[in-house]
Amino acid sequence: MTGDTKATIMDAARAMVQARGYNGLSFRELAKDVGVKSASIHYHFPTKGDLGAALARRYSDEAVDIFNGFLEASQDTETCIKKYTDVFRSALSNNNRMCLCGIMAAEHDDLPPEVRAEVDRFTDVNVEWLVKLLSRGRSKATAEETRQRALAIFAAVEGAQLVARGRGDIAVYDQTIEAYRRAGLLP
Predict the structure, then answer these.
(1) What is the pLDDT of residue 45?
(2) Which of 49, 94, 162, 164 is least buried, going by the fewest C-beta atoms within 10 A?
(3) What DSSP letter does each residue of 28-90 carry, written as one string?
């Protein structure tokens, strides 16, 4: 088993979870998709919780890199928020998939503690990034008000994605995000 096999397993598992949720993650089906034996999956990830936590950790780390790239590329808050919402939109445009951590958050009670901790971390990194973005403006909001708005933005974007996925219509996402802009929630 090489690092490439581990990455291949994680890529296939990510697609499976984004399509079916954490409860739909099956080592047997994953092994079949990757072309290895189930024991090979267990070699890298002894439990489903280990795999779920690794997926959420990698997803959060990738998000931080992507979002920080937006801040480095532009000083314009509206441009950055547009790129941010486009990240969530891209999951929908990929076979009506959900944000990996968003779909796992919906299964919160079924998640092992290690997975739950990584899913919570995804929320935290999103809120922290949004606080950085919102703090660039000349707002008279307190730090706590900025943090609350950041959480509201994150929850609203995840919610728009969930509703659009449920409808099987990416236009629902686009319309909802635009409504958030008009209402002043999004910069």
Answers:
(1) 96
(2) 94
(3) HHHHHHHTS-HHHHHHH-SSHHHHHHHHHHHHHHHHHHHHHHHHHH---HHHHHHHHHHHHHH
Q: What is the pLDDT of residue 151?
A: 98
- Return all residues near 160 (Cβ < 8 A) that are at least 6 apart: 88, 172, 173, 176, 177, 180
Are the C-beta atoms of residues 15 and 104 closer than 8 Å to each other? no
Helix (H) or strand (E) holding 153, with range, is: helix 143-167
- Give a yes or no: residue 118 inside a domain: yes
State the average pLDDT for the chain: 95
Distance CA 102, CA 122 (A): 9
Please give the tally of structural domains in the chain: 1
Range of the domain at 56: 48-183
Is 105 inside any structural domain? Answer: yes
Give me the phi and psi of 45, to 5 degrees please.
Answer: -135, 90
CB proximity list for 126: less than 8 A, separation 6 or greater: 63, 67, 150, 154
